[in-house]
Amino acid sequence: MEKLTLQEEQTMLYIWKLGACFVKDVVEQYPEPRPPYTTVASVIQNLKRKGYVEAKRFGNTYQYTPMVPQNEYKKNSVGNLVRNYFADSYKEMVSYFARENKISASDLKDIIDLIEKGKQD
Questions:
Q1: Three-class secondary structure of residue 56 per DSSP
Q2: Predicted TM-score (pTM) of this structure
Q3: What is the pLDDT of residues 20-49, one digit of tens each?
Q4: Which residues pair with 98 in a beta bridge?
Q5: For helices 70-85 and 90-99, what crossing angle results, to 10°?
Q6: By the 8 A CB rule, do 46 and 28 touch?
């Protein structure tokens, strides 16, 4: 799975939210001031080239549909983050967030409950 730029990732988040959509639909998702239509169209063409969306022609425009499920992209991205920045250790990642006060003890207890529940299923 080819890595996305920040601009491509933001556009892809809107496409996942919308499902099948046109460039104008994606442009409308951006907060003001919105990027130009042509900029968004170029980003979507890059997403198509990378295999993240497919295009279906409707008259003189195209409808774009996500080809990569959001959860698959998320799983791959988090895996890369852990591998590249936390020595391939999820424990190291959680420890980092705890040290940086980005996760609370309550959150950690909830995570432990999820893990223990998962072991029971």
A1: strand
A2: 0.81
A3: 999 999 999 999 999 999 999 999 999 999
A4: none
A5: 80
A6: no
